[in-house]
Amino acid sequence: MNKELDTAERIVSRLTPWLKKMMKGASGITISGIHKPGMGLSNETYLFDLSWEEGGTRHERGLVLRCPPADHRVFPDYHLSHQYHVMNALKGSPVPVPAMWGIEEREDVIGTPFYIMERLRGTMPKDYPSYHGSGMLWEMTPDERRALWWDSLSVMAGIHATDWKAAGLQFLGVPGAGTDPIDRQLDYWTRYLEWTRDDPSEQHPVLERALEWLRENRYEPERISLCWGDARIGNMLYDEKTCEIVAVLDWEMAFLGDPEADLAWFMFIDRYLAEEYRLPRLEGLPGPDETARRYEEITGNTVRHGRYNEIFAATRFGLILVSVIKKLMRLGMHDYGDMIGNNHCTRTLASFLGMPSPGAQPGAPTEGSDGRLTVQFHLSGPGGGDWYIIWDDGSAERQVGVLDAPLCTVRSSLEDWRALQSGELNQLDAWTSGRLKVEGDLNVMIRLKDDIRRLLG
Q1: In whole angstroms, what is the distance from residue 418 CA to residue 187 CA?
Q2: Model confidence, pTM
Q3: Are strands 408-413 and 373-380 parallel, antiparallel or unpaired?
Q4: Pick from 225, 278, 235: which is nearest to 255 by CA?
Q5: Nearest Cα to Cα of residue 95 among 165, 149, 154
Q6: Nearest alpha-carbon partner for 96 in 66, 79, 118
Q7: Per-residue pLDDT tens for 183-207?
Q8: Among residues 169, 324, 318, which one has the least CA distance to residue 255?
């Protein structure tokens, strides 16, 4: 039995008695269809269907179980209860969140703390492949993208308008006067940097200097609000037909502090997902200045520290990348080379701080000496074989066989490849389980995604 299936069956066997105790008056409780939709970097997620009888009526609900990741964590301090209680506190507010079903902070039920929430239907822009190159946002018109951006900004402003005292969110840590709201964050991220080091000699000069600059230039915030922490359109669930925002998800980075930090993060992550993957930012998405002005109109508050919080966002995300890339490489995924120290975050920070660039700014995906883009596929199993795709002068063609020195090589079974193309298999899950292996320039695949789907879908 594979490890994932064994874990899912173990969860079912132990979760059912727990639900029986929680759901007073319910009988005939059964769990079905439990599965793990993806790897999860900051959380492990399982989806399942719950059925029970109550008051003579049979009920069914789709639910989500979330728990800490089993291996390397992205964050040193993992407060599962914070995520649960923030969303529970927002129930009934203008901020859409799933209904929370229960939390278990002990490990003796399924072997780890967990919480359960309602499963909502919808879609969200993906980080990888970047939504600037494929997916729901890429397929929209410029006007539709603009409307989605403004709606998302309004929901984020609604988070900042939450009366966090009345909502009982003091457990996130109430900042003191003066620069204390900023100091608390800088203390946390300084500890985070130390936590990421594999040994004391490991150096991150750009990130270290950025933290020093942030400390030297900290300010006294004018407002303290609930901050989402990971504020971005990729953490919002949208209705597949209307694009109405169904839920705001992923609250593991939530804190009480200056809401301008969320605004800067919201804009920086979007820019990162274009520039890091060498993709043009999607037409129709408002720029930073326009976004800041709209935020001021919505909230009635002036954005005064945009540049500081942009540097703060680049520093935070740069630190998270150190942790995430190390995790992915330990799992045997793609070799990210020098991306830990040379990425959009560190290049942005180095330029601002007047430091030497940590590496060259990537241009277009690397072409061969003959100007062509090439991807080799080794697809095993029934019906599989060796194929390669060559893009040359604006057109692509598929050939049978093995190409010398392709720019990118993909290994998978034909069955798994087809499941990836249909969406039945999550790409990150395929990577971590070894069912998909990619070597070489990943951005060649992004650039040729439409040709690959057409020629080898």
Answers
A1: 47
A2: 0.85
A3: parallel
A4: 225
A5: 154
A6: 118
A7: 999 999 999 999 999 888 999 999 9
A8: 169
